[in-house]
Design brief:
Order of helices and strands: EEEHEEHEHHHEHEHEEH
CATH architecture: 3-Layer(aba) Sandwich
Number of helices: 8
Number of strands: 10
Strand order of the largest sheet: 6-7-8-3-9-10
Radius of gyration: 18 Å
Helix content: 25-40%
Structural class: alpha/beta
CATH topology: Rossmann fold
Length: 247
């Protein structure tokens, strides 16, 4: 464990079993790893490997059948649904492949949603979210609705929304899956900039180029960790530039 950095998430012998008896399917078979504050981790694996199930558990969207999960020091496994929902809203910023924006709300209103549910005052909420929208380069679209935005703009809104509650963890699920290569590079560079600023990021991807740029790569196969490798120089060597090429 790196000196001076605290764990953001800790998974201990996580198992997930669907069904019972002869119909039981073990999707996760004892997953253990720790992500420290400020780390950038790519979780990769083929379809059916268990990475989507792992995403749901790390995102507090599902519970493990066995094992323990701590998020920012709190044992998620022991929380009831109400406290789990609160922790998810307060501690995790989500960036999904399909954006998950509310179509009838403006850019500002979408970014504000986590803070609205957290009951932050309107004035403070507006000020914080306008700053985040400016940070992702969308000040000129602040009153637009998602239907008028490009795919890349929608994902930028999703990134701003993920940051609005100042989360301990940004969890990105195939964030470039619906984007062309040039726009994908722009979104990934935005995530890299957040990491440069000290954000903790866990990225779920099947894209080998995106995985190759991560300083840490965890490969999942058949519900088990196949490898967990670190390469601190990977981000500098393989970081994409605008237009989709790698450095």
């Amino acid at each position: 464990m790196s000196e001076g950095r605290t764990p953001v998430l800790e998974l201990e012998d996580i198992e997930k079993i669907y069904g019972t008896g002869d119909a039981a399917v073990r999707v996760l078979r004892g997953i253990s790893f720790t992500v420290l504050e400020g780390e950038y981790v790519a979780v990769v694996g083929p379809s059916g490997s268990g990475k989507s199930t792992l995403l749901n558990i790390v995102g507090a969207l599902d519970r493990p059948t066995h094992g323990r999960y701590r998020l920012a020091g709190e044992d998620v496994s022991r929380l009831d649904d109400r406290r789990l929902s609160h922790l998810r809203n307060a501690r995790i910023g989500f960036v999904f492949q399909s954006f998950h924006l509310v179509p009838h709300l403006t850019v500002l209103e979408n970014v504000e949603l986590p803070l609205f549910y957290a009951r932050m005052g309107r004035r403070e909420r507006h000020a914080r979210c306008k700053e985040l929208i400016e940070k992702v380069g969308l000040s000129h679209r602040i009153h637009s609705t998602p239907v008028t935005l490009s795919g890349g703009e929608r994902q930028r809104v999703a990134v701003a929304r993920a940051l609005s509650n100042d989360p301990a963890l940004i969890l990105a699920d195939e964030p470039t899956g619906n984007l062309d290569s040039s726009t994908s590079s722009e979104i990934m560079n935005l995530l890299y900039e957040l990491h440069d600023g000290g954000r903790t990021i866990v990225l779920i991807t099947h894209d080998p180029e995106i995985a190759r740029a991560a300083p840490r790569r965890i490969v999942i196969r058949d519900g088990l960790i196949h490898s967990d490798e670190r390469d601190e120089g990977a981000l500098h060597a393989n970081r994409p530039v605008a237009g989709g090429a790698a450095r």
